[in-house]
Write a structure and sequence with these properties.
192 residues; mainly beta; 56% strand
């Protein structure tokens, strides 16, 4: 069967809006193990494109490696505006900018082949609304190395529930030079 993507946008298209209607499932858990080493299965793989997820439906993504990835030099973002989203993957969400203003997002980051799970990996993390629940066999919100002073995780609305297996791993950045996870405090200035 081989490794694969559920949704793939290999070139920039500006903004991809995923409008959820009804129940939607991307299940890539049956991907060939050998192939996934070279091309891991990723539920949503986007290049140089912002992703906006909205609608009144649901989406469940299950993949052997990645849930939702948005990469590229153009500093792409992932924004959750509405809908009911569940992501089950080792590296669940990865984007330079992660924003959540509504909806419900449940992230189940599971360890695969000894890799430390990371629920959300981002340079900038902002939650202004919605319900975010993170359960991770490793790290919760992992900021890019050196982003702790530039853009600490910001939470000003919604609800947040984080459960992680690594002490200090709820909000952290990974120092690759020292091979340690450094805990950081989120900005809760406007959180009620």
């Amino acid at each position: 069967d081989g490794a694969k993507y559920g949704i793939s946008v290999p070139k920039s298209i500006g903004t991809l809006s995923i409008v959820l209607k009804g129940a939607n499932v991307i299940d890539l858990t049956k991907a060939d193990t050998l192939a996934s080493v070279f091309i891991p299965s990723v539920g949503v793989y986007i290049w140089e494109t912002d992703v906006v997820i909205k609608g009144d439906g649901s989406l469940v993504i299950s993949a052997t490696r990645g849930g939702i990835y948005s990469f590229g030099e153009a500093d792409p973002s992932i924004e959750i505006k509405s809908g009911n989203i569940t992501v089950n993957a080792c590296y669940s969400i990865d984007a330079k900018y992660f924003k959540m203003s509504g909806g419900s997002l449940t992230v189940n980051a599971t360890e695969v082949d000894g890799d430390i799970a990371s629920a959300i990996y981002s340079y900038e993390f902002r939650v202004t609304g919605g319900n975010l629940k993170i359960m991770s066999a490793g790290l919760g919100v992992e900021m890019w190395y050196d982003s702790d002073e530039d853009a600490p995780p910001m939470i000003s609305g919604g609800s947040l529930d984080i459960s992680v297996a690594i002490a200090g791993g709820a909000f952290c950045y990974y120092d690759y030079d020292e091979d340690v996870c450094v805990a950081i405090a989120p900005d809760l200035t406007n959180y009620v």
